[in-house]
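queue> holo job accepted (fructose -6-phosphate)
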Amino acid sequence: MCGIIGYIGKRQAAKILVEGLRRLEYRGYDSAGLAVLNNAGLFVHKSQGKLERLVNRFQSNRCLGNVGIGHTRWATHGIPNEVNAHPHYDSKRKIAVVHNGIIENFRGIRTHLESTGCRFRSETDSEVLPHLIDSYYKGNLLQAVQSTLRQVEGNYAIAVISPNEPTRMVAARKGSPLVIGLGADEFFAASDVTAMLGHTDEVVYVEDDEIVDVAMDGVRISTLSGEPIQRAATTVSWDISQVQKEGYPHFMIKEIMEQPISLRQSINERIQAGRVVFPELEPLSENLGNSDKINQVVFLGCGTAYHAGFVGKYTIEKFARIPAAVDMSSEFRYSSPVVTPGTLVVAISQSGETTDTLAAVRYAKEQGATTIAITNVVGSSITREVDVTINMYAGPEIAVAASKTYTSQLAVLSLFALYVAQLRQPRDVDAIEALLHDIEDLPAQVEKVLTQAATIEHIAKRYSTYNHFLYLGRHINYPSALEGALKLKEISYIHAEGYPAGEMKHGAIALIDEEMPVVCIVSESEVHEKMLSNIQEVHARKGRIIAIATKGDLEIETLIQDTIYLPQIHEFASPILIAVAFQLFAYYVAAHRGLDVDQPRNLAKSVTVE
Ligand code: F6R
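queue> job finished
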C-alpha cells in the first residue's frame, strides 16, 4: 500500500510534497517522511504516525530545495516507527528512495550488502534499494537504478533522488501504480493523480517494467534495458475541488452527500432511448449475447466490492438468466474454481490496484476466461489485465471507507446485467424496462434519502454506545446487510455481523438480547412478509430493532419506532438507497464516538498486499 510522491521544478518542493501526501494518506498513515535536495546535500525528515505529526515537527528553514520525494506508509515489513519510515537512504546519504510495494528477495540482497560493509538502519525490505543503487552508482543515477531493478524481485513504484545529480529524479514501476504529472517547468511522480491535482491535469501513466528519467527539461520513459518509449499524455477530468473537504468535517460525509452526482455520472450516458448502451462492451457483445460462448458469469471483488458483486450476481441471474457466482478475490484462486473459456469474470475494484483481485483476474485469464473490470481509476493496474474496462465515473474517493464508489458499482452492475439481458432476447421486456426506469431515477431518489440525514443521525446517536450489531436482510438485500455491517465495523470499531435473515434461527438468534441491536431491511420486496416474521422473532426475544422500510409501510410504523423510511423503488434498485442510509448511520455512529472517520485504524484504501 503506501503512497509515494516526487517533485522537480522551480518551486519549494516540501510544500508540494506535503500537500500531495495529504491526498495520498488514504493509502496508509502509519508514518510519513520526505527528502529534499539542497546545497547542504540531502535533507530527510520523517515521523511515526499520521502526516500531521510530520508537519507539526517540520523545520521548514532546513527543508528548502526544488527537488524532493515523499512517502506515507502502511507498514508491512517492520513496525510503524520513525526508523522504518521512508525515505530510506544509503550509508553515505547519497541516494534517497521512496517505495510502494514489496521487495521479495530483500533478505538475500541485504545479507550480501551487509557482507560488503553496508550498514542498515531499518527492518524494511525497501532499504535494500538505496544501498543497492549506491553499489551500482558510477556517476549515472538512471543506470544505477536500472541495474538495481534488474536484480530485485517483487513489486514497486519508486522515486529516487541523489545530491550527486541535483536536477534529476528517477522513477519506476512494476506492479504498483505510478503516474507522472507534466506541469509548466515542473514535473511530478505519484501513486495517483489526486496528489498533483491543482498543479497539472496532464499525466502519463507508467507501465510495468518502465523507468522514467525526470529532469528539469523533460521526461524520458524507457524499458529497464534502456529502449526509449513514446507515450502520449492523458488529460485528467478530476478537479481539485473533488479532493478537498469543502466545508464538510470529513471526506466520508462529503462523499456520501455527493452520491446524486456520482450516480448521475455512472448512469446517465449509459441509458439512451430506453436501452442500456456500453460502447466499451461492443467488442464482446456477440459473445455476451450467445449462451454457447458465455455460459457463466463470476463476479469477483474484496470487501465492499465483493458485496457489489453479490448484488450483481442476483441481478444478472434474474434478468439475463445466466448462471452466476460471486467470490471474494482472496478466496477464489485457492478454491480450484471451475473456469473455462465460456466463463466471464467481472472483477470489481474501486482502486483497480487490489492485489488479490489482480491475481484472481490473472488466474481466470490463464484458464481462458473473458475478463471485464469495473473500476473508478483510469489507468489503474486492473485495466491492463482485462479484456474490457468499464469506468464507474464516481470521481475521486478519499475517505478510506467506500461510499459513493459502492453505489456507483451497484448502478453499473445493474446496467451491465440489463445490457446482457437485452443481448439475450429476453422474454420479460417489461421487467427490464421497469428496473431501467428506476435506475434512471436513482440520483433523485438518493437525494430524498439524504434529506433524512438528521433523522438518521438522531437514531445513530442513541445507538452509538452499543458494542454489537446484527444486520439482517434477505435475497438482493442480504449483501446490503453485509455491507451495512462492514461499514459500521470499519469506521466505528463496533462488532457488527451481516446475516441472511432466514438463517437467523439456525444459530445467530442465540445472540439476541437487549444489548444487541438488530438492523432489519424490510423494504418493499418479494420477501417483505418473511422479513416481518423475522422482525417478530427478534421482537419476541427483546431485541432492539432498527428497521429500514419503504415509506408508507403501515405495519412497520405500528411495530418499530426506530425506522428509516426510504422512497419506493424497484426491489433490484433498492440496495443503492439502503446503502446510502447505512453509510449515514455508520458515519454518525463513528462521528459521535469521536473517531477518525476518514482514516480508521489499521486500514488502507488500496490493499496492494496479499
Ligand atoms: C470498505 C472498503 C474495502 C474495499 C476493498 C476493495 O469500505 O473500502 O472493503 O472495498 O478493499 O478495494 P477495491 O475496490 O479498491 O478493490
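queue> The chain has a mean pLDDT of 94.
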